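Figure S7 source data.
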Amino acid sequence: MTCADCMTLDGQTCVVTGASRGIGRAIAEEFGEYGANVVVNYRSSEAKAHEAAEYIEDETPGAATVVQADVCDREAVESMHESTTEAFGPADVLVNNAGLTVDRTFANMSREDWDRVIEVNLGGVYNCTHAFFDDIVDADCGRLINISSVVGQQGNYGQANYATTKSGLFGFTRTIALELARTGSTANCVAPGFVETDMLDDVSEEVQAKIVERIPLDRFAEVEDISGIVRFVAGPASSYMTGQVLAVNGGMEW
Ligand code: NAP
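Tokens for the predicted NAP complex:
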């Protein structure tokens, strides 16, 4: 195998949830750049999802299809699985990226605020992993990649709900890694630090400045800092790595 073979995702079917914006979009586009057939999932940002797919189709060796599905909706996710199979055949790679925040101090956090974040960030992971699990089992080197967060490792003021979901992914990933191991497929977590996306825009400038003080590399991540690592985990060069949490956080302690 040459080095180039280790890098390619040529002909692999890669499903990325929440690929209309931010980190998910960068992952989808980078998968296309490495030759993958990419399923660009979105919930509400239809135009942006189509922009990502057009980039993959027009500017990369990959191919793309756009599938609308709220990851909380099991029927919609099952239907996304059917659309994936029709477009590209069974999935080789699933990236559970879709996620959101509803930030409040715990004293002000309603049960609805709690449930909303659990429903998307963990319920969505259940629905998507369940729908694509047999594909990943049957794939030659299937990959389940869960996008967690440094917040799952450190906790974060005002994010009890979000931190719970992101650390929950560690136990989920390690368990699925054990259950997949006999098949040769892997499950890993990528835990980004703070990344320049719409999600970070929700954080006040004052709090952002305090966060940067805690980052040894002295800057927030660009989406490409994360997508490159996810592409490595998706590819053949990572085949002996499973059940791991890859911290991509500019050197923050955890
Ligand atoms: P973002 O810019 O807010 O984008 C979120 C993406 O998730 C959008 O494409 C959105 O789709 C999609 N999404 C949200 N709810 C969904 C649902 N119910 N069903 C399907 N798609 C849904 O977020 P981001 O910063 O890129 O974050 C992506 C992932 O990285 C999340 O899991 C987040 O927790 C994690 N992360 C982010 C950071 C950070 O600092 N930004 C740090 C660590 C980890 P629509 O727009 O179509 O609704």
